[in-house]
Amino acid sequence: MKTVVAGALGECVHVAGVSNFLRLAESAGWRTIFLGPAVPVETFLEATRRENADLVGVSYRLTPETGERLLAEFAEAAADLHEQGVRFAFGGTPPVSQKAEALEGFFDQIFDGSQGCQEILAYLRGEDLSTSGESTYPQSTIERIRWKQPYPLLRHHFGLPTLSASIEGIQQIAEAKALDVISLGIDQDAQANFFHPERQNPRTTGAGGVPVRSAEDYRQLYQASRTGNYPLMRTYSGTDDFIRLAEMYVETINIAWCAIPLFWFNLMDGRGPLTLEESIREHQNVMTWYGQRGIPVELNEPHHWGMRDAPDVVFVTSAYLSAYNAKAFGVKDYIAQLMFNSPPNLSDAMDLAKMLAILEMIASLEDDSFHVWRQTRTGLLSYPLEDNAARAHLATSIYLQMALRPHIIHIVGHTEADHAATAADIIEASLAARRSIENALAGQPEMTFDPKIQARKKYLIEQTQITLQAIKAISLNGTADPLTDAETLTKAVGLGILDAPQLKNNPFARGKIRTRVVDGGNEAVDELGNPITEQDRLKDYLN
Predict the structure, then answer these.
(1) Predicted confidence band of residue 122 (pLDDT cuts 50, 70, 90)
(2) Which of 131, 157, 329, 538 could be bridged to 287 by S-S, CB 3.0 to 4.6 A?
(3) Quick check: 296 and 258 in contact, CB under 8 A?
């Protein structure tokens, strides 16, 4: 194990940066020695020799002119160690860092505060990201998750109304090293009618995303990302011609993972041409296709219920059904999407409890052939319009999400209530997200231990088991597995076992359920507004 000693030099007492550096070093496998504040030159050198240090971290954050003199003195005194191969790294403000740079290569690396934690980690791991190419950055999702730990991958949605603007924006995002994953937002015709130009409507070109119309368009978008930190790329799975689209995505953008719902993107929500039952079957086929190729799959399912004001128990039930179906249809690496603030008026405590209930339930599905990777995001409908308030919401939401130690954070930018994010917006949002993540990893309180959160989690799990029981009860005799049977799942929606208030008058759903936020959680209620249990709500289907 290599050893690093670090401290604040001379009269400097600012050690926050030193502490962060050593914490990152520990995560990279180093033995660390913290020398503290105001460390004399002689003490630095004595500790370096005593500990047989491989690396010395020197920090100074005071007056540049004083720092220049002190650093020169330090470099002269440490010349023999430098000649013996001991490496020296400096951290300080930009003006002092400029003085450190003038010492003609004494410092192996200089950190002026502009570098992210990932760049510091890369240095400590022996990687030179300043001169690296694509081979340095893992180009598959699971490899990149493991490479970046303990930091989550950062993902953001991006797609502008023209191909040229989207290409330019992707290049800017990649060069800024803002994201690990660029999620291409494509327009509706690209999702539904890519292989059917006769069905496309020229008047809606670019509505909702970039108007990709050929495989070459996708190749150009992907090529724009081949710079900076070489981010991964993914996009919608479409609403028709699923397998043809999947084949093209793999070939053109090396799709990082598939994202597909179970119950949505069909005639029920107006986003696709298939009936509910038809789309469930097709979505299951897509899971199988990606699973056979070892490509991760995300079911972007439960938040669609939450955004339609479904009770928390339906949200949790749909999340469990998503993971259950993914496993049943051959997915090996499952990305569990956990959208907070859906609906937006939930309390943080009850929101967190809901996510913990999901994770505990789907954890029971894990084995050697099925792995769960946690992805969190802020609720799309929760952002305020005012810019400062939106930025605060972004930061606080991500800090809350970090209680789940996510592997991926899907950043929903602070501009969403006003306009689709530009490249500049995304870069700004990623900086805010990184700060929240770093603060959390530095020592976040264990919010999940809150007794109220634990009690709510337990209640939701108990209620979800009842909902699942009701779904099983409505299946036809001889159904092998009601929880994966498209006919049974369709029936569960039609009967209102799975229901949401905003499905009212929907031809595929019941839309009769009433909900209200009670003590921070979203509950099913009776005609008088009183919360009701699943036993009472589903009594007609329970034996």
Answers:
(1) confident
(2) 329
(3) yes
Category of 332 on φ-ψ map: left (φ > 0), alpha (ψ -120 to 50) or beta: alpha
Please write the tens of the pLDDT for every residue from 30-77. Answer: 999 999 999 999 999 999 999 999 999 999 999 999 999 999 999 999
Report if residue 46 sits inside a domain: yes
Encode burial over 388-412: b for 16+ CB neighbours within 10 A, e otherwise.
eebbebbbebbbbbbbbebbbbbbb
- Looking only at the bridges linking them, the beta strands covering 55-60 and 87-92 are parallel
Is 410 in contact with 156 (CB distance < 8 Å)?
Answer: yes
Phi, psi torsion values for 317, nearest 5 degrees: -60, -45
Structurally, the chain folds into a number of domains equal to 1
Q: In the structure, what pLDDT confidence band is assigned to residue 132 with cuts at 50, 70 and 90? A: low
In the structure encoding, which two tokens stand for residue 158, read together? 């991006």
Instruction: Look up the domain containing 107 and give its range.
Output: 3-124
Output the six-digit token pair for 306: 């939450």
- Distances in Å between the alpha carbon of 362 and those of 145, 303, 342, 374, 534? 20, 16, 20, 11, 20
SS3 (DSSP) at 37: strand
Q: Which amino acid is at 531?
A: P
CATH number of the domain encompassing residue 25: 3.40.50.280
Residue 337 · residue 377 · CB < 8 Å: yes
Q: Of 322, 325, 326, which Cα lies nearest the Cα of 339? A: 322
Q: Quick check: is 513 in a domain? A: no
Give the list of residues 6+ apart from residue 348 with CB closer than 8 angstroms, or none: 400, 520
State pTM to two decimals: 0.89
